[in-house]
Amino acid sequence: MSEKTDVFGIQLETQFIPAPAGQEHPVLVFLHEGLGSVRMWRDWPRLLCQQLGCAGLVYSRQGYGQSDAVADVRGPAQQSPDGQIRSGRLQPDYMHREAQLVLPELLDRWAIQRPVLIGHSDGGTIALLNAAHCDVHACITMAPHVMVEDMSIQAIQLAREAFEKGSLRERLKPFHADVDCAFWQWNDVWLSEGFRSFDIRDTLATVSAPLLAIQGVADPYGSMAQIDDIARHATQTQLLKLAGCGHSPHRDQPLAVGQAIEGFLKNLRA
């Protein structure tokens, strides 16, 4: 059952998964993809929390799931004088803002310290950016984006065609209160000229927490260069490259991903 958490006057959909009795492991915090939400994760967070004996927090970013929509999502980008509330189109720094402003405030509201971050796609990038600036127990990133590749842009252009002319809009509707807000805020910023220079590789050297990076070999949104570059800049990184896997490792290869995360965290406890 989800509820709402107020963050800077924005109501964000949140779902807390209690830990099994007697367990006191770090809380797993799940950060969704560019078109994701609490519901889009389906049962995977709950099953992983059961497997690991951990509590979990899942939330939908503004404009996704049942969280408040972004006002005038395709209009000019604007923000309040204090910089806390934005409206209009997302700006190229939207993942930095989520990682450094929104997520720390949300975790403070839930009194969560030193979480294990588990991020997918955009959420994987947000996890890395948060771990670069905040104290986390560990960071697990699946199919992240540390720079913009031509193949990513091509895949996102195809997603726009599928949303406008195909069935993607109808397939996304069950997961978002405002499906047009969810889609356009992501699609517009990724296809904007200002986003082509997005690159966080130099930031990765400041990530000191243990790091597990997972990528599917058949991911149309990013090549192995994404996680190889993470390992190059953050040398403590463990890599998992999955054959027969696309952009969503936790859906395409849930057993392999669950086992890898369990082994990774067990080694940290040891």
Q: How would you describe this structure to a colleague?
A:
By secondary structure, the chain is of the alpha/beta class. It is 37% helix and 17% strand. It contains nine helices and ten strands. It has helices at residues 44-52, 94-109, 122-133, 150-165, 168-172, 179-190, 225-233, 249-252, 254-269; strands at residues 3-7, 10-17, 28-31, 56-59, 78-79, 86-87, 116-120, 138-142, 211-216, 237-242. The chain has an eight-stranded mixed sheet, sandwiched between helices. Strands 5-6 form a two-stranded antiparallel ribbon. The chain is globular, with a radius of gyration of 17 Å.
Describe the structure concisely for a colleague.
37% of the residues lie in helices and 17% in strands. It contains nine helices and ten strands.
Number of helices: 9
How confident is the prediction overall: mean pLDDT? 96
Structural class: alpha/beta
Low-confidence stretches: none
Strand content: 15-25%
Number-wise, the strands total 10
Q: Give the strand order of the largest sheet, numbering strands 1, 2, ... along the chain.
A: 1-2-4-3-7-8-9-10
